[in-house]
Structures are given as C-alpha cells and as structure tokens.
Structure of Epoxyqueuosine reductase:
Amino acid sequence: MTTIDSIDLNNLADNIKAWGKALGFQHVGISDVDLAQHEAHLQRWLEAGYHGEMTYMETHGLLRARPAELLPGTLRAIAVRYDYLPPEAKFATDLANPNTAYISRYALGRDYHKVVRKKLKQLGDRIKAEVSTTNFRPFVDSAPVLEHALAEKAGIGWTGKHSLTLSQEAGSWFFLGELLINLPLPVDQPVEEQCGTCTACMTICPTQAIVAPYTVDARKCISYLTIEQDGDIPEDLRALIGNRIYGCDDCQLVCPFNQDAPITTDADFSPRQVLMSKPLAELMSWTETEFLQNTEGSPIRRIGYARWQRNIAVGLGNADCTEDNLAALRQAKGRVNAMVDNHIDWALEQLAAKTERAAMVTRQQQRLVRSIRKGLKRDA
C-alpha cells in the first residue's frame, strides 16, 4: 500500500483504465471537475422550467456543476461507459404494432443503477488498495452531477443535439457512471463533436421535445412523461406517446452513429421475456402483486403500479379498437385510483371515436358502391 506522494500518476491512470475495463467498462476516461462553463446553460434550462416536476433539479441548482461540493477534496472524475444494447432489441416490430407495448431498451433488463454502481465501487476499492489515501464516491444517475458534461470532458464522447452522450464507436446505447476521487490524475482530452448539420433526432421526436440543439424540454419528453411525471399526462400529448409505456428511444434509433453500435455481452441487460414484446392488454391485466413480481430488480418498478397502469391506458387509447383492448380497459376501471380512471376514460373515448370513424368510412364506401352501381345501370 502506497501514498500519492510516492506513485507515478501516469502509470496509475493507465492502471485505473485497465482495471475498469477488466470490470466490464468499455471506456474509462478521466476529467477535472471544473464545470463552470456549463453553469449558465444549466441555469437557463432551470429558469425556463424545462425540468418540469423534477423539483430536485431546482433544489440542487448549480450544485450539479460543482462536483467538488459533493465530495470535499475531489480533484478528478473517472467517467465510464457501459454498453447495454441487447442482441434481441426488436425496436421496429414493437413500435410498428400499436397493440404491443414499447419499453425503452435500457429498462428491459436489470436495474442499471445497481449493476454499474457496484462495479464503480469495486474500481474505487481497487484504487484505494493501491493508494491508501484515496477517497472516492461513485455516482450512477443518482445524485446532482452533470454526468454528460463529465463524460464529455473525459473523452467518452460528445454531447449530441438530443443532450445524450454520443460516441463515434458506440453511438449512445450505453450507461454512464462517475467516480469522484481526490487524486490529481492526468486528464484525458475531449473528442470533437461530429453531429454537424444533422438534426435527425430533433425531427423524429414524437412530441418535439428537443426545442433547440442540446436543449430538451422535459415536460414534453416521453421519457419524462411516462417515468417522472406524477399525476395526469397532458391530454394534448397522449396521442403522440403512441404505444411507448416506459421511456422512448426514437432520438437514438434515428441517430446515424447508432447504426453499428456494439451489442452487450452482459446477461443482466438481456430483455426479460415477461416484458418483451407483450400486448398492452396483457400488461394492463396485471395486478399490483404481479407488477411487483415481474419488475423486481428492474428500473421499471420505481414508477409504481399507478403510473404503470396510467401509461398502459394511454397506450391502449392509441391502439386498435379490439375486444381485448376494450375488455382490458373496462376491467381496470376502479382498480387503482381516480387518476388512472381518468386515463382509462380517455382511452375508451379514443377507441369509441375510432369505431365511429371506421363506421363512417364504411357508410361512405357503401354509398360509393351504390353510386357506382347506379352509374353502371344507366350506362347499360
């Protein structure tokens, strides 16, 4: 065991990256913790109210841009990338079928917070075993830290126009984690942004939540609406959500850098069959006990049963008017609370309107057929 005064910091940094990769991280970078250049953008974002009901964002304020205040003595952030794209993603088939539930691909496996944080803790312990004076703290989307800014400074990638971190070799199908540490390690250099004039992510967004390059209005983002939003989902956005009942991947699906993104070999992120490509009606029928059982160890559990039912009700309102879908909604009425019932009523109204429109089209077609037949008789 040694102290920082007697160690080669360049060699230590190389070792840290090797230890991180041995733990399963695909990329390990090191940055300083000066995020002053990000404070103004963060402040404008908060002042615009783009954080919606995420009051913790405002509560912590500019602390997010000041990592050293989270862990006194912090000098560096070790940023890591952990790929999660499963081989059996089935993006297109699930999105194309309005009666099938679409769940963001990061959420189909095990809760990433636990997986990545455990590995970061192991990395910190390994460093401390090497340098006895090491003090560290791991973060995985669990504290007021600007993780994308730190990843950018550490050379993991650049911040795309959808506000996610992009890597030329890995796209954006990866989790980020940070290890704040009190060692004056040599830092890595940021990579050059390569989005250029591409605005595909902004164009594809179903709710147009990317209001400007690098700026997302969370209040319109489907991930926010289905995960963070408490209570009613605004009616004017419900139809735009489609069958996305937990999160949204559209801005990543259309990104050119994701076309050849690497596939994870970690079984923790293989889709659970109980969640993958399931009919909305089937998921709506789950009792709360079944919901808790089927989402144990999953990030989905954090939204709770009421939001789960609310989200599926919206999905069913955007689905086809079938007997299964109607029955699932009617049977769920009164099961949870008034908020969920409001969304069920909305869904039933949407399906009724679809039936009426279909009937009107049929009547118009029947009139057209009769008109054609009359014309044929006259011509005869």
